[in-house]
Amino acid sequence: MKILVINAGSSSLKYQLMDSVTHDVLAKGLCERIGIDGRLTHKVPAKDIKKEFEISMPTHAEAIQSVLDALVSPEHGVIASVKEIDAVGHRVVHGGESFAQSVLITDDVMKAIEDCIPLAPLHNPANITGIKACQKVMGNVPMVAVFDTAFHQTMPEKAYLYALPYEYYENDKVRRYGFHGTSHRYVSARCADMLGKPIDQLKIITCHLGNGSSIAAVDHGKSVETSMGFTPLAGLPMGTRSGDLDAGILQYLMNKYGWSIDECLNVLNKKSGVLGISGVSSDFRDIESAAKEGNHRAEVALECFQYNVKKLIGAYAAAMGGVDAIVFTAGVGENDAKTRMAAASGLEFMGVKMDPDANNTRGKEAVISAPDSKVKVLLIPTDEELMIATDTAEIVGK
Ligand code: AMP
Questions:
Q1: How far apart are CA 54 and CA 224, in angstroms?
Q2: Sheet containing 325-329, strands listed edge to edge, beginning at the edge strand earlier in sequence
Q3: Residues 325-341 as b or e (16 or more Cβ within 10 Å = b)
Q4: DSSP conformational letter for 47
Q5: What is residue 277's predicted lDDT score, i.e. its pLDDT?
Q6: pLDDT of res. 314
Q7: What is the Cα–Cα distance from 226 to 228, expressed in whole angstroms?
Q8: pLDDT of amino acid 166
Q9: CA 106, 186, 10, 263: dihedral to nearest 10 degrees?
Q10: Long-range contact pairs involving 350-355 (C-beta distance under 8 Å, separation at least 24)
Q11: What pLDDT was estimated at residue 25?
Q12: pLDDT at 398
Protein backbone atom coordinates (compact mmCIF):
# COMPACT_ATOMS: atom_id res chain seq x y z
CA MET A 1 0.00 0.00 0.00
CA LYS A 2 1.10 3.56 -0.64
CA ILE A 3 0.59 5.60 2.52
CA LEU A 4 1.00 9.36 2.82
CA VAL A 5 2.25 10.24 6.31
CA ILE A 6 1.43 13.77 7.47
CA ASN A 7 2.79 15.64 10.46
CA ALA A 8 1.08 19.04 10.52
CA GLY A 9 2.34 21.92 12.64
CA SER A 10 0.80 25.38 12.94
CA SER A 11 2.73 26.84 9.99
CA SER A 12 4.52 23.77 8.65
CA LEU A 13 3.67 20.32 7.36
CA LYS A 14 6.03 17.36 6.96
CA TYR A 15 5.12 14.51 4.64
CA GLN A 16 6.41 11.14 3.49
CA LEU A 17 4.95 8.86 0.88
CA MET A 18 5.83 5.32 1.93
CA ASP A 19 5.35 1.84 0.60
CA SER A 20 4.01 0.00 3.64
CA VAL A 21 5.20 -3.38 2.33
CA THR A 22 8.76 -2.61 1.23
CA HIS A 23 9.11 0.26 3.73
CA ASP A 24 10.61 2.38 0.93
CA VAL A 25 10.29 6.15 1.29
CA LEU A 26 9.11 7.12 -2.20
CA ALA A 27 9.16 10.88 -1.53
CA LYS A 28 9.29 13.19 1.44
CA GLY A 29 9.40 16.86 2.20
CA LEU A 30 8.28 19.87 4.09
CA CYS A 31 5.90 22.79 3.59
CA GLU A 32 6.93 25.86 5.55
CA ARG A 33 5.61 29.37 6.14
CA ILE A 34 1.96 28.27 5.68
CA GLY A 35 -0.29 31.31 6.20
CA ILE A 36 2.66 33.65 5.53
CA ASP A 37 3.82 32.98 1.96
CA GLY A 38 4.76 29.32 1.43
CA ARG A 39 7.77 27.18 0.62
CA LEU A 40 7.90 23.52 -0.38
CA THR A 41 10.99 21.31 -0.16
CA HIS A 42 10.42 18.02 -1.98
CA LYS A 43 12.83 15.08 -2.05
CA VAL A 44 12.88 11.79 -3.94
CA PRO A 45 15.51 9.67 -2.13
CA ALA A 46 15.84 6.97 -4.83
CA LYS A 47 16.72 9.56 -7.47
CA ASP A 48 18.65 11.92 -5.22
CA ILE A 49 16.22 14.69 -6.20
CA LYS A 50 15.77 17.74 -4.00
CA LYS A 51 13.56 20.58 -5.24
CA GLU A 52 12.54 23.82 -3.58
CA PHE A 53 9.52 25.87 -4.61
CA GLU A 54 7.96 29.14 -3.51
CA ILE A 55 4.21 28.41 -3.58
CA SER A 56 1.41 30.50 -2.13
CA MET A 57 0.00 28.61 0.89
CA PRO A 58 -2.62 30.77 2.61
CA THR A 59 -3.88 27.65 4.43
CA HIS A 60 -2.93 24.00 4.98
CA ALA A 61 -5.25 23.03 2.10
CA GLU A 62 -2.96 24.76 -0.45
CA ALA A 63 0.03 23.15 1.27
CA ILE A 64 -1.49 19.65 0.87
CA GLN A 65 -2.43 20.45 -2.72
CA SER A 66 1.18 21.48 -3.45
CA VAL A 67 2.41 18.21 -1.93
CA LEU A 68 0.02 16.20 -4.14
CA ASP A 69 1.10 18.22 -7.19
CA ALA A 70 4.74 17.45 -6.40
CA LEU A 71 3.98 13.74 -5.93
CA VAL A 72 2.34 13.45 -9.39
CA SER A 73 4.65 15.87 -11.21
CA PRO A 74 6.08 14.37 -14.45
CA GLU A 75 9.54 15.80 -13.58
CA HIS A 76 10.00 15.00 -9.90
CA GLY A 77 6.89 12.99 -9.00
CA VAL A 78 6.74 9.36 -7.88
CA ILE A 79 3.15 8.38 -8.73
CA ALA A 80 1.03 8.82 -11.85
CA SER A 81 -2.14 9.82 -10.02
CA VAL A 82 -3.27 10.83 -6.53
CA LYS A 83 -5.58 7.77 -6.74
CA GLU A 84 -2.49 5.62 -6.07
CA ILE A 85 -2.42 6.91 -2.47
CA ASP A 86 -4.30 4.24 -0.52
CA ALA A 87 -4.54 6.06 2.80
CA VAL A 88 -3.20 8.95 4.87
CA GLY A 89 -1.67 8.53 8.33
CA HIS A 90 -1.70 11.63 10.54
CA ARG A 91 0.51 12.21 13.53
CA VAL A 92 -1.66 13.60 16.33
CA VAL A 93 0.06 14.72 19.50
CA HIS A 94 -2.62 14.23 22.15
CA GLY A 95 -5.23 11.53 22.37
CA GLY A 96 -5.89 12.03 26.09
CA GLU A 97 -7.46 8.98 27.71
CA SER A 98 -9.67 8.39 24.66
CA PHE A 99 -7.06 6.68 22.49
CA ALA A 100 -4.75 3.85 23.49
CA GLN A 101 -4.22 2.91 19.84
CA SER A 102 -4.22 4.37 16.36
CA VAL A 103 -7.73 4.73 14.85
CA LEU A 104 -9.54 5.29 11.59
CA ILE A 105 -10.62 8.93 11.52
CA THR A 106 -14.41 9.34 11.70
CA ASP A 107 -16.56 12.29 12.77
CA ASP A 108 -16.61 10.90 16.33
CA VAL A 109 -12.82 10.56 16.33
CA MET A 110 -12.43 14.15 15.12
CA LYS A 111 -14.70 15.28 17.96
CA ALA A 112 -12.59 13.35 20.50
CA ILE A 113 -9.36 14.86 19.10
CA GLU A 114 -10.98 18.31 19.38
CA ASP A 115 -11.90 17.50 22.99
CA CYS A 116 -8.18 17.02 23.68
CA ILE A 117 -7.30 20.56 22.53
CA PRO A 118 -7.14 21.92 26.11
CA LEU A 119 -4.49 19.27 26.86
CA ALA A 120 -2.31 20.25 23.86
CA PRO A 121 -3.37 23.77 22.87
CA LEU A 122 -0.40 24.32 20.56
CA HIS A 123 -0.32 20.94 18.81
CA ASN A 124 -3.78 19.40 18.45
CA PRO A 125 -5.32 22.39 16.60
CA ALA A 126 -2.53 22.18 14.00
CA ASN A 127 -2.99 18.40 13.68
CA ILE A 128 -6.75 18.90 13.22
CA THR A 129 -6.12 21.57 10.58
CA GLY A 130 -3.87 19.10 8.72
CA ILE A 131 -6.55 16.38 8.81
CA LYS A 132 -9.29 18.75 7.63
CA ALA A 133 -7.07 20.08 4.82
CA CYS A 134 -6.42 16.52 3.60
CA GLN A 135 -10.12 15.67 3.78
CA LYS A 136 -10.90 18.79 1.75
CA VAL A 137 -8.32 18.13 -0.94
CA MET A 138 -8.30 14.30 -1.01
CA GLY A 139 -11.99 13.54 -0.49
CA ASN A 140 -12.78 10.02 0.66
CA VAL A 141 -9.28 8.57 1.02
CA PRO A 142 -9.25 6.74 4.38
CA MET A 143 -7.29 8.52 7.11
CA VAL A 144 -5.83 7.24 10.35
CA ALA A 145 -4.74 9.13 13.47
CA VAL A 146 -1.61 7.94 15.28
CA PHE A 147 -1.18 9.51 18.72
CA ASP A 148 2.03 10.43 20.55
CA THR A 149 0.33 9.66 23.84
CA ALA A 150 -1.36 6.34 22.93
CA PHE A 151 1.51 3.95 23.73
CA HIS A 152 1.73 5.23 27.30
CA GLN A 153 -1.96 4.62 28.05
CA THR A 154 -0.91 1.26 29.53
CA MET A 155 0.79 3.00 32.47
CA PRO A 156 -0.73 1.87 35.77
CA GLU A 157 -2.59 4.37 37.96
CA LYS A 158 0.28 4.54 40.45
CA ALA A 159 2.56 5.76 37.64
CA TYR A 160 0.27 8.22 35.91
CA LEU A 161 -1.35 9.90 38.91
CA TYR A 162 0.14 13.09 40.31
CA ALA A 163 -0.17 13.45 44.07
CA LEU A 164 -2.69 16.29 43.73
CA PRO A 165 -6.25 16.33 45.08
CA TYR A 166 -7.92 13.53 43.13
CA GLU A 167 -10.62 15.83 41.71
CA TYR A 168 -8.04 17.46 39.44
CA TYR A 169 -7.59 14.08 37.79
CA GLU A 170 -11.27 13.21 37.81
CA ASN A 171 -12.63 16.56 36.66
CA ASP A 172 -9.73 18.12 34.80
CA LYS A 173 -7.79 15.09 33.49
CA VAL A 174 -4.58 16.28 35.11
CA ARG A 175 -2.33 13.20 34.98
CA ARG A 176 0.86 12.01 33.38
CA TYR A 177 0.26 11.20 29.68
CA GLY A 178 3.76 10.88 28.23
CA PHE A 179 4.81 11.68 24.66
CA HIS A 180 7.10 10.29 21.91
CA GLY A 181 4.96 7.14 22.23
CA THR A 182 5.28 6.22 18.56
CA SER A 183 9.06 6.34 18.85
CA HIS A 184 9.19 4.35 22.10
CA ARG A 185 6.87 1.75 20.56
CA TYR A 186 8.92 1.49 17.36
CA VAL A 187 12.34 1.13 19.01
CA SER A 188 11.13 -1.29 21.68
CA ALA A 189 9.65 -3.52 18.95
CA ARG A 190 12.87 -3.29 16.89
CA CYS A 191 14.88 -4.08 20.03
CA ALA A 192 12.95 -7.33 20.51
CA ASP A 193 13.49 -8.19 16.81
CA MET A 194 17.21 -7.49 17.04
CA LEU A 195 17.55 -9.62 20.19
CA GLY A 196 15.48 -12.38 18.56
CA LYS A 197 13.10 -12.56 21.52
CA PRO A 198 9.35 -11.96 21.81
CA ILE A 199 8.72 -8.48 23.23
CA ASP A 200 6.45 -9.99 25.86
CA GLN A 201 9.49 -11.62 27.44
CA LEU A 202 11.54 -8.43 27.75
CA LYS A 203 11.97 -5.46 30.08
CA ILE A 204 13.26 -2.59 27.95
CA ILE A 205 14.23 0.99 28.79
CA THR A 206 13.96 3.23 25.73
CA CYS A 207 15.86 6.54 25.77
CA HIS A 208 14.58 8.97 23.12
CA LEU A 209 17.23 11.69 23.38
CA GLY A 210 16.85 14.55 20.93
CA ASN A 211 15.94 18.18 21.09
CA GLY A 212 13.00 16.92 23.14
CA SER A 213 13.90 13.91 25.28
CA SER A 214 12.00 11.24 27.15
CA ILE A 215 12.65 7.81 28.60
CA ALA A 216 10.15 4.97 28.88
CA ALA A 217 10.02 1.69 30.76
CA VAL A 218 8.54 -0.92 28.41
CA ASP A 219 7.62 -4.04 30.37
CA HIS A 220 6.55 -7.02 28.25
CA GLY A 221 5.74 -4.66 25.36
CA LYS A 222 3.73 -2.20 27.45
CA SER A 223 4.79 1.26 28.55
CA VAL A 224 4.60 1.29 32.35
CA GLU A 225 6.45 4.53 33.06
CA THR A 226 7.71 7.51 31.14
CA SER A 227 9.42 10.77 31.94
CA MET A 228 7.26 13.32 30.14
CA GLY A 229 4.07 14.13 31.96
CA PHE A 230 0.94 16.22 31.56
CA THR A 231 2.94 18.18 28.98
CA PRO A 232 6.23 17.55 27.14
CA LEU A 233 7.97 19.95 29.55
CA ALA A 234 8.51 17.27 32.20
CA GLY A 235 11.30 14.78 32.83
CA LEU A 236 14.82 15.17 31.51
CA PRO A 237 16.50 18.50 30.90
CA MET A 238 16.22 18.97 27.11
CA GLY A 239 17.56 21.28 24.39
CA THR A 240 15.65 24.29 25.71
CA ARG A 241 13.16 22.75 28.18
CA SER A 242 13.88 22.54 31.89
CA GLY A 243 12.45 19.09 32.54
CA ASP A 244 11.36 18.38 36.13
CA LEU A 245 11.70 21.11 38.69
CA ASP A 246 10.29 22.17 42.04
CA ALA A 247 6.99 23.97 41.31
CA GLY A 248 7.88 26.40 44.11
CA ILE A 249 10.50 27.90 41.78
CA LEU A 250 7.69 29.30 39.63
CA GLN A 251 6.23 31.29 42.51
CA TYR A 252 9.68 32.50 43.58
CA LEU A 253 10.72 33.73 40.13
CA MET A 254 7.29 35.14 39.24
CA ASN A 255 7.23 37.19 42.44
CA LYS A 256 10.83 38.29 42.11
CA TYR A 257 10.65 39.39 38.47
CA GLY A 258 6.95 40.24 38.23
CA TRP A 259 6.47 37.61 35.52
CA SER A 260 3.12 36.30 34.37
CA ILE A 261 2.72 32.52 34.24
CA ASP A 262 3.16 32.67 30.45
CA GLU A 263 6.46 34.55 30.81
CA CYS A 264 7.62 31.99 33.34
CA LEU A 265 6.68 29.05 31.12
CA ASN A 266 8.40 30.71 28.19
CA VAL A 267 11.65 30.61 30.21
CA LEU A 268 11.02 26.98 31.18
CA ASN A 269 10.17 25.90 27.61
CA LYS A 270 12.50 27.98 25.49
CA LYS A 271 15.44 29.24 27.55
CA SER A 272 16.22 26.36 29.87
CA GLY A 273 17.63 22.84 29.49
CA VAL A 274 21.18 22.46 28.17
CA LEU A 275 20.83 25.88 26.47
CA GLY A 276 19.99 27.50 29.79
CA ILE A 277 22.83 25.89 31.73
CA SER A 278 25.49 26.24 29.03
CA GLY A 279 24.45 29.63 27.65
CA VAL A 280 25.94 28.31 24.38
CA SER A 281 23.29 26.49 22.35
CA SER A 282 20.52 23.90 22.49
CA ASP A 283 22.48 21.75 20.04
CA PHE A 284 24.66 19.12 21.68
CA ARG A 285 27.31 19.48 18.95
CA ASP A 286 27.84 23.15 19.80
CA ILE A 287 27.90 22.44 23.52
CA GLU A 288 30.43 19.63 23.05
CA SER A 289 32.70 21.93 21.03
CA ALA A 290 32.49 24.59 23.76
CA ALA A 291 33.16 22.00 26.48
CA LYS A 292 36.23 20.81 24.57
CA GLU A 293 37.52 24.36 24.66
CA GLY A 294 37.18 24.41 28.44
CA ASN A 295 33.80 26.14 28.83
CA HIS A 296 32.72 24.99 32.29
CA ARG A 297 29.02 25.73 31.86
CA ALA A 298 28.98 23.71 28.63
CA GLU A 299 30.68 20.83 30.42
CA VAL A 300 28.25 20.85 33.31
CA ALA A 301 25.23 21.13 30.96
CA LEU A 302 26.31 17.86 29.31
CA GLU A 303 27.03 16.23 32.67
CA CYS A 304 23.64 17.30 33.99
CA PHE A 305 21.90 15.75 30.97
CA GLN A 306 23.90 12.52 31.13
CA TYR A 307 23.40 12.23 34.90
CA ASN A 308 19.64 12.59 34.57
CA VAL A 309 19.48 9.95 31.83
CA LYS A 310 21.47 7.55 34.03
CA LYS A 311 19.30 8.31 37.07
CA LEU A 312 16.11 7.51 35.17
CA ILE A 313 17.59 4.29 33.73
CA GLY A 314 18.24 3.19 37.33
CA ALA A 315 14.77 4.27 38.43
CA TYR A 316 13.04 2.49 35.56
CA ALA A 317 14.98 -0.71 36.15
CA ALA A 318 13.71 -0.51 39.73
CA ALA A 319 10.16 0.21 38.51
CA MET A 320 10.21 -2.95 36.35
CA GLY A 321 12.17 -5.11 38.83
CA GLY A 322 15.00 -5.50 36.31
CA VAL A 323 16.00 -4.66 32.77
CA ASP A 324 17.06 -6.78 29.80
CA ALA A 325 17.87 -4.04 27.31
CA ILE A 326 18.46 -0.30 27.07
CA VAL A 327 17.85 1.45 23.75
CA PHE A 328 19.23 4.82 22.64
CA THR A 329 17.46 6.70 19.86
CA ALA A 330 16.72 10.17 18.31
CA GLY A 331 19.23 12.90 17.36
CA VAL A 332 21.47 12.67 20.41
CA GLY A 333 20.85 8.99 21.18
CA GLU A 334 21.63 7.94 17.60
CA ASN A 335 24.64 10.15 16.96
CA ASP A 336 26.37 11.02 20.18
CA ALA A 337 28.63 8.18 21.36
CA LYS A 338 29.96 10.24 24.28
CA THR A 339 26.53 10.90 25.77
CA ARG A 340 25.57 7.23 25.41
CA MET A 341 28.79 6.13 27.07
CA ALA A 342 28.47 8.63 29.91
CA ALA A 343 24.82 7.73 30.53
CA ALA A 344 25.47 3.97 30.56
CA SER A 345 28.77 3.89 32.43
CA GLY A 346 28.60 3.42 36.18
CA LEU A 347 25.70 1.03 35.69
CA GLU A 348 27.96 -2.03 35.79
CA PHE A 349 26.47 -2.87 39.22
CA MET A 350 23.18 -3.69 37.45
CA GLY A 351 24.76 -5.65 34.62
CA VAL A 352 25.41 -2.95 32.00
CA LYS A 353 28.80 -3.20 30.30
CA MET A 354 29.41 -1.04 27.25
CA ASP A 355 31.69 -1.95 24.32
CA PRO A 356 33.53 1.32 23.48
CA ASP A 357 34.34 0.17 19.91
CA ALA A 358 30.79 -0.94 19.15
CA ASN A 359 29.51 2.30 20.70
CA ASN A 360 31.61 4.26 18.23
CA THR A 361 28.74 4.03 15.72
CA ARG A 362 26.41 6.63 14.28
CA GLY A 363 22.89 6.47 12.99
CA LYS A 364 22.57 2.74 12.33
CA GLU A 365 21.25 -0.21 14.26
CA ALA A 366 23.87 -1.79 16.50
CA VAL A 367 24.34 -3.65 19.76
CA ILE A 368 26.75 -1.41 21.65
CA SER A 369 27.17 -3.39 24.87
CA ALA A 370 29.99 -5.90 25.43
CA PRO A 371 29.20 -9.50 24.44
CA ASP A 372 29.19 -10.51 28.13
CA SER A 373 26.96 -7.62 29.24
CA LYS A 374 23.95 -9.02 31.10
CA VAL A 375 21.88 -6.05 29.97
CA LYS A 376 22.05 -5.45 26.21
CA VAL A 377 22.47 -1.86 25.07
CA LEU A 378 21.29 -1.00 21.57
CA LEU A 379 21.42 1.93 19.21
CA ILE A 380 18.25 2.01 17.09
CA PRO A 381 17.40 4.93 14.78
CA THR A 382 13.78 5.79 15.35
CA ASP A 383 11.27 5.80 12.50
CA GLU A 384 7.99 7.32 13.60
CA GLU A 385 6.84 7.73 9.98
CA LEU A 386 7.25 4.02 9.33
CA MET A 387 5.25 3.24 12.47
CA ILE A 388 2.49 5.65 11.32
CA ALA A 389 2.48 4.11 7.82
CA THR A 390 2.40 0.57 9.24
CA ASP A 391 -0.49 1.36 11.61
CA THR A 392 -2.37 3.12 8.81
CA ALA A 393 -1.95 0.22 6.37
CA GLU A 394 -3.03 -2.27 9.02
CA ILE A 395 -6.15 -0.34 10.04
CA VAL A 396 -7.20 0.49 6.49
CA GLY A 397 -6.45 -3.06 5.31
CA LYS A 398 -8.86 -4.56 7.85
P1 AMP B 1 16.00 15.33 17.18
O2 AMP B 1 15.16 16.24 18.02
O3 AMP B 1 15.80 13.89 17.47
O4 AMP B 1 15.96 15.67 15.72
O5 AMP B 1 17.52 15.63 17.63
C6 AMP B 1 18.15 16.83 17.32
C7 AMP B 1 19.36 17.02 18.18
O8 AMP B 1 20.29 15.93 18.00
C9 AMP B 1 20.19 18.25 17.82
O10 AMP B 1 19.72 19.40 18.44
C11 AMP B 1 21.56 17.87 18.34
O12 AMP B 1 21.66 18.33 19.66
C13 AMP B 1 21.59 16.37 18.35
N14 AMP B 1 22.58 15.82 17.42
C15 AMP B 1 22.44 15.56 16.11
N16 AMP B 1 23.60 15.06 15.60
C17 AMP B 1 24.49 14.99 16.63
C18 AMP B 1 25.85 14.57 16.75
N19 AMP B 1 26.53 14.09 15.74
N20 AMP B 1 26.41 14.66 17.98
C21 AMP B 1 25.73 15.15 19.02
N22 AMP B 1 24.44 15.55 18.96
C23 AMP B 1 23.83 15.48 17.78
A1: 46
A2: 222-226, 213-219, 203-209, 325-329, 376-379, 366-367
A3: bbbbbbbbbbbbbebbb
A4: G
A5: 98
A6: 98
A7: 6
A8: 98
A9: 120
A10: 350/314, 350/317, 350/323, 350/375, 351/375, 352/326, 352/377
A11: 98
A12: 80
Q: How are beta strands 103-104 and 143-147 bridged, if at all?
A: antiparallel
For 265, what's the count of Cα atoms within 13 Å in the CB-facing half-sphere? 7
CA gap 231, 207 in Å, rounded:
18
- In 3D space, the residue among 247, 3, 238, 205 whose CA is nearest the CA of residue 102 turns out to be 3
Give which of 370, 369, 284 is closest to 333, Cα–Cα. 284
Measuring CA to CA, which residue among 307, 233, 306 is closest to residue 272?
233
pLDDT of residue 122: 85
Q: How far apart are the CA of 361 and the centre of ligand 1, in A?
A: 14
What is the set of active-site residues? 148
Q: Taking CB atoms and a 6 Å cutoff, what residues make up the pocket around ligand 1?
A: 210-211, 239, 283-285, 330-332, 335-336
Ligand 1 center–CA 285 separation, angstroms? 7
Q: For ligand 1, what atom is nearest to the CA of residue 283?
A: 12
Say how many Å lie between the CA of residue 330 and the centre of ligand 1: 7
Could you tell me the distance, in angstroms and rounded to a whole number, from the CA of residue 80 to the centre of ligand 1? 36
Q: Profile the chain (398 residues) by mean pLDDT over runs of 10 residues.
A: 96 97 97 96 97 96 96 97 97 97 98 94 93 94 98 98 98 97 98 98 98 97 98 96 97 98 95 98 97 98 98 98 98 97 97 98 97 98 97 95
Q: Which amino acid is at 172?
A: D
Candidate of 183, 280, 283, 383 to mutate for ligand 1, largest count of ligand atoms within 8 Å of Cβ: 283
Q: Are 61 and 130 in contact (CB under 8 A)?
A: no
Q: By the 8 A CB rule, do 90 and 138 touch?
A: no
pLDDT of residue 29: 98
